[in-house]
Amino acid sequence: MKNPCYHRPEDTADTLKYPKLTTISQMIEQIVATAADAGAVPRWQRNPDNPFEEAVTIRDVLRLFVKNRESLKIGTPQLFLINNTLAMLDGIVERGSITPDERARALQAARVVLFTVL
Description:
By secondary structure, this protein is mainly α.
């Protein structure tokens, strides 16, 4: 359940959900640490040519959500979407390739999860 004061003038420190905020901060730290330890600096490309690596990243982030589902208070519908998307992404990783339709589905699922959980 979202804070009814969320992003309103009444949204003060006493209305924050500190355990959830802590979990989100720790997840961000894990993602940043992984990026910082990467073997190469990311390069900007107008048209990405690595949607497979993108799928792996989405899978890894969704796994973090599952790992932290209790503190993030992830609901049943969200968990259903996450688990179905993870099953699809695991198949993609095992196969070693991704179709444009699969990429679109993975990106949409990731958007929904990020929007509804965070």
